[in-house]
Amino acid sequence: MKFTKKEIFWVKRNEPMILQILEKRIDDLKEQILDVPDEKRDALINFIKEYKLGIGIIKELGSDKKVEEWTGI
Predict the structure, then answer these.
(1) CA 60, CA 41: separation in Å to the nearest integer?
(2) Burial zone of 61 (CB within 10 Å; 0-12 exposed, 13-18 middle, 19+ buried)
(3) Which of 37, 52, 63, 65 is the most exposed place for a label (fewest CB within 10 A)?
(4) Sign of the CA dihedral with 16 first, then 52, 24, and 8 last
(5) How many helices (H) and strands (E) does the chain have?
(6) How do the pLDDT tens digits run along the chain, 73 residues long?
(7) Looking at the 3D structure of the chain, how many domains does it have?
(8) Which residues contact 52 (CB under 8 A, 6 or more apart)?
């Protein structure tokens, strides 16, 4: 995923709030996991993993590491 300099600047500026929102959402999903039928539970777990991946991407963008070389993999 490629980000423009404007997008990177916005993420850096809003990183704490974005991370806080994503963490709250993960906590909500974790609370709901036992209410989900067994056949759909794997999908919810994968969804939580995607949120955590998003948190990792945001932290990488917020770091002072040279962003142009980062691929997210």
Answers:
(1) 29
(2) buried
(3) 37
(4) positive
(5) 2, 0
(6) 788 889 889 989 999 999 999 999 999 988 988 898 988 899 999 989 998 998 888 888 888 765 455 555 5
(7) 1
(8) 26
> Is the pTM for the entire model greater than 0.85?
no
The two three-digit tokens of residue 54, written as one number: 């998003």
Residue whose entry in the numeric block shows the structure tokens 């490629």: 2
Q: Are 47 and 32 in contact (CB under 8 A)?
A: no
**CB 7, CB 70: distance < 8 Å:** no
> What span, in angstroms and rounded, lies between the C-alpha atoms of 73 and 60?
11
Could you tell me the residue range of the domain that residue 30 belongs to? 5-69
